[in-house]
Amino acid sequence: MATLYHQVWINASTARVYAAIATEKGIGGWWDPPKVTRSDGGVTLEFSPGPEHGILKARIVAMIPDERVEWEFVSTHRATSPASAWTGTRASFAITRREVPPWSSERVDMAILDFRHSGWDERSEYLGFCNFAWGETLQKLKRWCESADASG
C-alpha cells in the first residue's frame, strides 16, 4: 500500500491550523464545506466534490487538539471517479510547532503540517492525480490559515 505525503510550513499557530482541519468553518474555508453527522458511531463528514463523484464520506477516527486529526474514507464511488480509490484509505493531519528558523524573515513561530493519505493501491490510476490534487488543496489550507478569515 502507498501513502501520499506532503509537509506544509504554515505561518500560523498550531491552534489555528487545528481549527482549520477540525471544524466545519475551518474545513469549509479551504475545501468543500462539510455536512457533519453525529451518531453513536462517531462523527462523519460528508463532502460534495461534484455530481460525477457523488457524496464523499469520511469518518473522524482521531482528534487531538492542536496536534492531530485523522479521517477514514468510508463512501464508495463509481470506478470512473478518482474518489473510488479513496474507499478504506485514511487522511492524517499531524501538526507540530516550529520556532522561527534563523533564515526566515517572519517573526512568529510556525506550524508544520504533515499530511499523509495512506492505504492507497499502488496500481491505482488515480494515485498521481490525487497526490497532485492534495498538494493544491493543502496550498489552499495554508493560505486559509495565514489569512484574516481564519482568525474569526
pLDDT < 50 stretches: none
Total helical segments: 3
The radius of gyration computed from the alpha-carbon positions, rounded to a whole number of angstroms, is 16 Å
Strand portion? 35-45%
- Name of the CATH superfamily: START domain
CATH architecture: 2-Layer Sandwich
SS-based structural class?
A: alpha+beta
Placed side by side, the strands forming the largest sheet appear as 1-7-6-5-4-3-2
Q: What's the assembly state of these chains?
A: single chain
Average pLDDT works out at 90
Number of strands: 7
Order of helices and strands: EHHEEEEEEH
CATH topology: Alpha-D-Glucose-1,6-Bisphosphate, Chain A, domain 4
Biggest sheet overview: 7 strands, antiparallel
Overall 3D form: globular
Characterization of the model:
The chain is of the alpha+beta class and 152 residues long. It has one domain: Alpha-D-Glucose-1,6-Bisphosphate, Chain A, domain 4 (2-Layer Sandwich). 24% of the residues lie in helices and 36% in strands. The chain has three helices and seven strands; from the N terminus they run βααββββββα. The chain has a seven-stranded antiparallel sheet, with helices on one face. A hairpin with a 3-residue loop joins β4 (56-64) and β5 (68-73). The chain is globular.
